[in-house]
Design goal:
11 helices, Mitochondrial carrier fold, 81% helix, mainly alpha, single chain, globular
Length: 331
């Protein structure tokens, strides 16, 4: 009799617990899906806002990187202004945003993938190193950023190639993004769409790694010293600007090499490898004036873009979490 009662009690408890567990698992899966979706949406918006804001400077930088200037010409703020002004006079105001549609086609998925991947890599590395729910230590913080940038670059590279071509060519040459793909495929082969891929990946590793590392580190230092859990929007912009300055300065020579290899087909050059491209640039234009061409202008464009990008992502994440929380409360 006693055994029968105990068995019934155990069975009752099992029936009572099992539905709770089975109901809890889908809830966790739903939360994870919402988190990934929020990261994708926030990242996409962050990339679009940041790149549109600096599109004229971005096009000017690509034009500098893509052409071989004489040795005495050192592109800086004055030369950048003259180039922008000449482009405006010859092609009109909106030509300063030429190639921005291709940029959006690339940047929106690139930024969405990069920011979302960064959140996921942080979580994975946090679990691996035992920092779940806490800020990562410096090395995993750098690795998370590098992996996020590499993942995004690998998945969206042909779109970056198209953007570079549209930026350095007259509008008569390519009418739209699809036209660029068709002409490159027919005239130069499909492999051309991945020309400059290796220097891109080699450049993304320090760029994304240092950018995310710097931004996350500055936020952590701010929280430790100020006692505030979150920095203000102006502080986020400043932290992002510092991240962009450090990341882009470290990877800039490889960025120049990437642009030269991408635009070689329309600029009358043939670059077969990273080292040969570097050697030719240094031989024709010098080390600083070649591999660091346009860097001074990038110190303006880069920090603005990265600052806007990181700030937009963080604020969108906060906004979406608040909206979801208020929706759950109302239910």
């Amino acid at each position: 009799m006693g055994n029968g009662v105990r068995a019934a009690q155990v069975d009752f408890k099992r029936q009572d617990v099992e539905p709770v567990v089975s109901a809890h698992l889908p809830a966790e899966g739903t939360q994870e899906k919402k988190k990934v979706l929020n990261s994708l949406m926030s990242g996409a918006l962050a990339g679009a806002v940041a790149k549109t804001a600096v599109a004229p400077l971005d096009r000017t930088k690509i034009m500098f990187q893509g052409k071989s200037c004489c040795r005495l010409e050192q592109p800086g703020f004055a030369e950048a202004y003259r180039l922008i002004y000449r482009t405006y006079l010859n092609e009109g105001f909106w030509s300063l945003w030429r190639g921005n549609s291709a940029t959006m086609v690339r940047v929106v998925p690139y930024a969405a993938i990069q920011f979302c991947a960064h959140e996921e890599y942080k979580q994975l590395l946090g679990s691996y190193y035992g920092f779940q729910g806490k800020a990562l230590t410096p090395f995993p913080r750098f690795i998370a950023g590098s992996l996020a940038g590499t993942t995004a670059a690998m998945l969206t590279y042909p779109l970056d190639m198209v953007r570079a071509r549209m930026a350095v060519t007259p509008k008569e040459m390519y009418s739209n993004i699809v036209h660029v793909f068709i002409r490159i495929s027919r005239e130069e082969g499909l492999k051309t769409l991945y020309r400059g891929f290796t220097p891109t990946i080699l450049g993304v590793i320090p760029y994304a790694g240092l950018s995310f590392f710097t931004y996350e580190t500055l936020k952590k230092l701010h929280a430790d010293h100020s006692g505030k859990s979150q920095p203000s929007p102006p502080e986020r912009l400043l932290f992002g600007a510092c991240a962009g300055l450090i990341g882009q300065s470290a990877s800039y020579p490889l960025d120049v090499v990437r642009r030269r290899m991408q635009t070689a087909g329309v600029m009358g050059h043939t670059y077969s490898s990273i080292l040969l491209t570097m050697q030719e640039i240094i031989r024709e234009e010098g080390l600083i004036r070649g591999l660091y061409k346009g860097l001074s202008m990038n110190w303006v464009k880069g920090p603005i873009a990265v600052g806007i990008s990181f700030t937009t992502f963080d604020l969108m994440q906060i906004l979406l979490r608040k909206l979801q929380h208020s929706t759950n409360v109302q239910r």
